[in-house]
Amino acid sequence: MHAGASRCLVVAASFIAAVLSLTSAPALASPKMPTSAMMAPINDIVAAVNANNLAMTKKFYTSSPIIIDEFAPYRWSGPNAVATWFANFGAFQTMAKITQGHVTVADPSYWDVSKDRTEIIVPATFTFLVGGKPAADSALWTFVLVNSGGSWKAESSTWVRTQLTM
Hints:
alpha+beta, seven-stranded mixed beta sheet, globular, Nuclear Transport Factor 2, Chain: A
């Protein structure tokens, strides 16, 4: 290739790079963590479950949420989803001889936001006693939150076990 052809390639490549830089979307700086307002319903759900308080738990979900969990029937949806999940969770704990259950969550391992919705995944641990012996259920707890009227509520939550220690 002669010098003139090399120079034409460099000019063409520079022109293409300049055009692409003008047409690509600017990079948006994303916060490292969800806002405290986004985290509020998750932290409130944890506190309500730890307090065994159905009315408090329902406050932080939308009016017709979807809940996925690791005990039958595994999926609850609609206006009574929280109450039915809560009752089934209590029955499951009684059947499995689970007592002194307590949930903790860590900082989100992943999150994304788009307008009035956000997905937040938090590592979670449910510690408890089974027949008096300590056990722990570690999971990734995924929440899809919707912002309505300036406050975030859980539209769905999914508990995915990562490890069970007994």
